Amino acid sequence: MSKRLFIFAGYDKLGRVDATLTYYLRALSKLGDIVFVMDNDLPDSELAHITQIPNVLYAKAQRHGEYDFGSYKRGYIWARDEKIFDKYDWVYLVNDSVFGPVFDLKPVLMDLESRGADFIGMVYNTNPTMAAHIQSWFIGFNQKIISSDVFDEFITSVKHEREKSVIVFKYEIYLTQLLVQHGYKPYGLYHDTDAKMYTQPAVVLQQGVPFIKKLSFQENNKIQLLYSFLSPELIDNIIEYANKYGIALCSDEKFWTIPYHRAFRATLFGIPLLAIRRQVYKRNTAYKIYLFDVIPVMKLSFNSERGTDE
Known about the structure:
- This protein is of the alpha/beta class.
- The chain folds into two domains: 4-216, Spore Coat Polysaccharide Biosynthesis Protein SpsA, Chain A; 258-308.
- Helix content is 32%, strand content 28%.
- The chain contains eleven helices and 15 strands.
- It has helices at residues 19-29, 44-51, 67-81, 106-113, 143-146, 149-156, 164-181, 196-199, 201-206, 216-219, 232-245; strands spanning 4-10, 33-38, 56-61, 90-95, 98-99, 119-125, 133-134, 138-142, 186-192, 212-213, 261-268, 271-281, 284-291, 295-303, 307-308.
- It is globular, with a radius of gyration of 20 Å.
- The model is unreliable at 304-310 (pLDDT under 50).
């Protein structure tokens, strides 16, 4: 299995470490080591939520005003100066602009890493209005790139910019173009031509990307369609996050708290083998299938107007 390092950029406008962030970091910690840099001044009590997560090699929280790429730069410089890059097959730049992973990230990364590309990502933005690029909220590089002068010069040149749009074009978009110009091959899991990450997140989930852009919660009035994809823990975390920031999850938030009831159970000598639990809400019906009544193996949802979601 590949050895991975995740350089994680965090930011919270309230200066806190919330449950959605620790959920994400715990998932990454099962797949590799983490270098964490947050563009906030955090008290030790908040930073402790990060340092107690397994495989976090370094955690720093200090306001620098250079957005995610400024955090990526600081995490990269720490790892470079500690001379640890040789230990890893892949180094990822990751940020907390998404909820997730919604489902198992390991097979997704194994698939991406097997494609023969030099740098990989969750979403390849191929919108014709701009240069094609891998979105920088989850992008990985092999040893050739991470040890190259090209990458070192690029990432260490990051500086404060007054406009976020400048950061997008100068760093996110240009990074893909720069690496391609130097002969490195990209690969993206999902090609997004019209911002579906923001406007139709359920479509992106169905295409195998295990993340939901946080901004889609503010711009999409059918967020309840994502319910059948989410674990109970992630649902609770998202509700907490939405309440903190005053985000309306959907037109009827009761949908998020409708319980599942057991619809079928098979046993052998009194031992539960298979259970199916059902949730019914208006035109939506969702099923969860469990082995031994405790291990979730599948989720299905139906809508009388739309057919099968998953």
